[in-house]
TrEMBL record:
The lineage of its organism: Bacteria, Bacillati, Bacillota, Erysipelotrichia, Erysipelotrichales. It is found in: Cytoplasm. One of its GO terms (molecular function) is 4 iron, 4 sulfur cluster binding. It comes from the Bacteria. One of its GO terms (cellular component) is cytoplasm. This is Heme chaperone HemW. Probably acts as a heme chaperone, transferring heme to an unknown acceptor. Binds one molecule of heme per monomer, possibly covalently. Binds 1 [4Fe-4S] cluster. The cluster is coordinated with 3 cysteines and an exchangeable S-adenosyl-L-methionine. GO terms for biological process: porphyrin-containing compound biosynthetic process. Its main location: cytoplasm. It holds the Pfam family HemN_C. InterPro entries: Aldolase_TIM, Coproporphyrinogen-III_oxidase, Elp3/MiaA/NifB-like_rSAM, HemN_C, HemW-like, rSAM, rSAM_sf. It comes from Thomasclavelia cocleata.
Amino acid sequence: METRSLYIHIPFCLHMCSYCDFCKVFYQKKQVDDYLAVLKKELASLKIDLPLKTIYIGGGTPTSLDDEQLEWLMDIIKPYISNDTKEVTIEVNPETLDCYKLDILKKGGITRLSIGVETFNDDLLKAINRKHNCMQIKRVIDYAHRLGFNNISIDLMYGLPGQTIEDIKKDLDIIKLLNIQHVSYYALILEDHTVLKNQNYLPLDEEDEANINELIDERLAQMGFIKYEISNYAKPGFESLHNLAYWQYDNYYGVGLGASSKIDNRIIEHSRNLNSYLKFQDITTELCNSKEETMFNHLMMSLRLVKGLDLKAFEKYYGIKVLDLYPRAINKHLSLKTLVIEDGYLRCTKDSIKLLNTILLDFI
């Protein structure tokens, strides 16, 4: 399988959010300079020989970098952007952006912004240790449009401490007023070693989560957003091409601290040891999955998509039909109507996609 997507991890943050377990460290100028130098070396060592279709810069907070460092990062990715590149995304936090940084991103080849909003409620933002406010979010989106960005995504969360159903409805009302093309809306997941987990905060129960999810689905659909993955909604033509590569189980490169690559049946993972990375030591580990493991992972990821698993593509990759591979599980769920086969895809229904983890147990 060709490898046409690239993920770049920038682990630096100006502050730590109470729910986040991503690979991150506090910003220090000298460390960032050293990191970017190593990042450039690592990219060169991959010897990428096919034009990339998607590039995604995540974090951390990539826009915690100062202007000069952000320009350097844009220079690093420039050789990998071509006419074949359909999408270049960067994650941004509102409080770290101004019109000058946005201009650097635009001139550097960024075509898509992913803004970490979480909620428009200023009190809730303070409770999870976010440093921006609702006004800054609106200002960033306005600046971005003035500079010519026409593909803007926002990340939101529900199930936050103290968040009510009315708070969520107000967030949805604000979305309606914004000129954005994509929404990622996630339930809060309590990860180990995060502040909220250590404070014994209790997440939503299944019934409340299902009701909120249904509300979000309905309200975003009324605004013209099409749900195309469990937690992702897009205006027509604005689906995240890079994330689709993950869900379709395509190959991708991952560079930087804590990043991972998927090359056919190989998963290559970076450690989170910053000191080793800055010394350009080999801090990757490689796991070779069996064919059976790879096929299950492909099925698992693709069933997250509303359109589901491409049956012809699966057979082309692995030389076996998914119906022959999992006859008992598929026939059970076809009879239960929790899975359907339509237009060459195996997929969940609108209601059963919420039960995906339970469905997948039968395939294991």
